[in-house]
Amino acid sequence: MQIEFQQAIEKHRQRVVTLARYSLRSPADADDIAQEVFVKLWQHWPKIDSDKQLSWLLRVTHNAIIDFVRRRKTRNDSIDEAVDVEAQAAEHSQFDALENNQLTASLTEAIRQLDDPFRSILVMRDIQGLSYAEIEESLEMNASQVKVYLHRARRKLRADPQLRLRFEEMT
Amino acid sequence: MNKSSEQIQCYAMQLQIDTFLDGELEGDQQAAFVGHVAECSGCAHELRYAQNLYESVLDLPEVDCSDVLIDNLLAISTQRATQRVEDSEDASAVTSRLPLRAGLFAQLDQFFRERLPLTIGFAAVSTLVIAVAIVMAPRGDNPPQSVVAIASSSSVAEMPPVAPVAFDAEQVRMALEELNTAIDYLNKVSQQTETMIGERFVVLPLQQSVNNSLRRASFSGNEERQAGPI
């Protein structure tokens, strides 16, 4: 079981971490979410069908992010922002290096500003390249709901004025 | 076409941009969309922006977690696996000590075997309580009465009235003194028996000794009760 669990970590960790990183500003928070999700996977291991591991992981990640954001909203925003800035300064990961690209940074920030489930569906479909069926299973929605949410997420992204300004400058 | 209807048409076309980018517009719908974009600079601009944005999002990389997190995850699985093994070993140890289907008496027997001093203490206290009960029990023709007065109730209403009997503090004190004397005597007898055994076993002197001892311990008015064997 331990070896199978480690194989599951190898196979799915990128999906979990990507969804968390594009949802939360602090890489440390995203890593905490990922760790929490895999601990839950270990705890519920016997009950989870191996074919449905990914959808289970994404659903738990999605719910954990929602819970985290909800908890954070109850705290003082200014303190939270300061913590985020400190955490970002402390982390020097591959992702931070990518965000140094201004367009990528603006795009990532605009995605983070989206509400759920728009954000999760956009990340799953356009960044992670999951099929509609996988997203449906992960978020327990039907196909038409997923498409409607995805198109609305893209329209919301296009309506972001800073993002539009950045693209205008490029062209 | 007036300006208002143009705006409505542009809005309707721009709602189809994502469907078009996903390649899901078909037939007449696609033709109408392409035709409109070809003539409308605003919608053409919006389509270009949407396409650039869409491609930029598609280019965003998936992210891997830090090595620290990977190490943490592997450590968690290792620790928890070890914990599970330890738990199962503890459980099997308990099972080996006590069979799962062991009876109540078997379990009580094992309980007391594992707690020998407690068992001895429990036996001593029990013996003491029984001895006190025997000493304090009333003798003669009177039936035994409870220390606690018999409460009157409907069930006993038909019985002849019985005067409540209780031992007062003085009687209890006397009984305890008698018990202490008897215990002292038993200790002495035990020592005497050890010295006398091997020569002869004399019953009469022992009985006299018991009676003498009890007589010494007796109080006036209580000789009759004291004279009996313990």
Question: What is this structure, in a nutshell?
Answer:
By secondary structure, chain A is mainly alpha-helical.
The poorly predicted ranges of chain A are none
Name the helicity range of chain A.
Answer: over 70%
Assembly status: heterodimer
Tally of individual helices of chain B:
10
What characterizes the major β-sheet of chain A? none
**What's the order of the H and E elements of chain B?**
HHHHHHHHHH
Helix/strand class of chain A: mainly alpha
Chain pair forming the biggest interface:
A-B, 42 and 30 residues
Q: How much is the average pLDDT of chain B?
A: 68
Weakly predicted, low-confidence segments of chain B: 90-108, 143-158, 223-230
From the helix content, strand content and strand pairing of chain B, which structural class follows?
mainly alpha
The number of distinct β-strands of chain A equals: 0
Proportion of residues in helical segments of chain B? 55-70%
**How many strands, what sense, and barrel or not for the largest sheet of chain B?**
none
Number of structurally distinct domains of chain B? 3
